[in-house]
Every structure is written in structure tokens, then in C-alpha cells.
From TrEMBL:
Coiled coil feature spans: none
The protein's name: TF-B3 domain-containing protein
Signal peptide: none
Superkingdom per UniProt: Eukaryota
Amino acid sequence: MEVMNKILSGSDATNRRLEFPAGSLWAFPMPDGQNSVEFVASDIHEQQWRLKVSVRNEGKYSKPWLKGEWGDYVHQKQLRKGDRVILTMNDEENGERIYRISAERMLFGFWYSIDEQQ
């Protein structure tokens, strides 16, 4: 199930955090009193990325961020503004959630997997 499909902004690609879509927070239930959830997402090469979704404790809007190893992921995949990142989630029969992350780049009007080019 797709959790997030986002075209990267300049700050997403250069800062060590991604502005996480608030509409995708449903996939990361946060226990009462906490403002973040850590999870592991695997790429196509089965490399695991430790990520963390955080929200503000105060204010009118939750303003979620994706942090953790996001900066390392951006660096390894050589992501830049305009690339697309897709995060998916599957609930296994044993109750475990499996997250996958992938990146794509637009070339000649088509999206191509960055992961498959590495």
C-alpha cells in the first residue's frame, strides 16, 4: 500500500530531513505523549534505512518531518530537486509492518528507477 509519493523540493534534497506529507501520517500511529515514530524501510537492494517520522508538539499544524538516515539515503542515491520518492507499507500476517522506499528520476518524460541504475 502506498504511504507516500512525493516529488522532492530543494530543501528535501539538501537538508537532512524531508517535509513529510501530513496525509501520510495514518501509516505511523504515535503512542500518546510521543511526537515521533522510528521505522526501517528497505530499498530494492535490501539495504535498510533507519528513518523517523516526527511532528511538532505544539501549534495548529502537525508539520511532519522524515529524518533519521534520510540524509544518507539522499546522498547514496544522489537525489536532487524534482526526483520522486515512494514509500510503501505492507502489513504481514504476523502483524509486522514492512516498509519499502524507492527513488525515481524523470528522464525524457518518463520516470526511471534510480535504484536500478546503481
